[in-house]
Write a structure and sequence with these properties.
The protein is an alpha+beta fold and 241 residues long. It folds into 3 domains: 3-54, RNA-binding S4 domain (Structural Genomics Hypothetical 15.5 Kd Protein In mrcA-pckA Intergenic Region, Chain A); 62-133 and 217-240, Alpha-Beta Plaits, CATH 3.30.70; 138-214, Alpha-L RNA-binding motif (Alpha-Beta Plaits). Helix content is 24%, strand content 24%. The chain is built from 7 helices and 13 strands. The chain has helices spanning 3-10, 15-23, 83-94, 124-131, 153-159, 194-200, 233-240, and strands spanning 27-29, 32-33, 48-50, 53-54, 62-67, 105-107, 115-121, 139-145, 174-179, 182-187, 206-214, 217-218, 228-230. Strands 5, 6, 7, 8, 9, 10, 11, 12 and 13 form a 9-stranded mixed β-sheet that branches. The chain has a 4-stranded antiparallel β-sheet with strand order 2-1-3-4. A hairpin with a 2-residue loop joins strand 9 (174-179) and strand 10 (182-187). The longest helix has 12 residues, at 83-94. It starts with a helix and ends with a helix. The structure holds uracil (URA).
Length: 241
Amino acid sequence: MRLDKYIAANTPRSRAEVSKLVRQGAITVNGARAIKASQHFDERGDTVMLLGETVKALGETYLMLHKPAGYICANSDAEHPTVIDLLIARDSKKFAHPLPIEHLQIVGRLDIDTTGLVLMTTNGDWNHTITAPNKKCLKGYSVETAEPIDESLAVKFLEGIQLNNEKHLTKPAILRVLGNTRCELDISEGKYHQVKRMFAACNNRVTSLHRYRIGPITLDTHLEEGDFRLLTPSEIALNAS
Ligand code: URA
């Protein structure tokens, strides 16, 4: 494993900072001063120290957040509060060790006005198994619309909808009508504003959108809006299957 990659993954230091610290002689491997940030070491046997403290492997972090409206899915933003701000505000009350905020990736974004399940992880491969188009991971949404939802829409959504500025029809989506203007929709893609655009293409308008499921992981009904929890080992493993 490369020294800079390891330290950046397990401390708040960036890889650029690690390079600087190596030049300053602040990093050692088995007691010997590190020579370059790109040097390799054995994670199982070698001891890396930064400013006299051992750098321990944190392991990966996986969590689910119940996103409220008004927050955007970004790591930082000049205009709006972000889902990361929610974690920072509540983190210190929840865990003995701080979350690796700067290493968290958001797994499939929601619009600012959409509520519901947001997954975050430090594990890029795990993220990929959910978001890569070829994985066809189903996302479940509760939808409310301005106009009545015709039962015939289920067939249209299954066959695919032509969205503006898209080359291909949307992939088969499963619509369950629950009421006059209420339904659930499962989609396997994650195009920009996809659900809103699908309804708009059928002369309707989404007035409320809530994601309750990503693949086999369902939003924990005990989580209040704005609250989050770590995923259980079985939830983490479910995604890998
Ligand atoms: N589709 C949308 O239109 N918005 C979302 O936030 C998610 C899916």
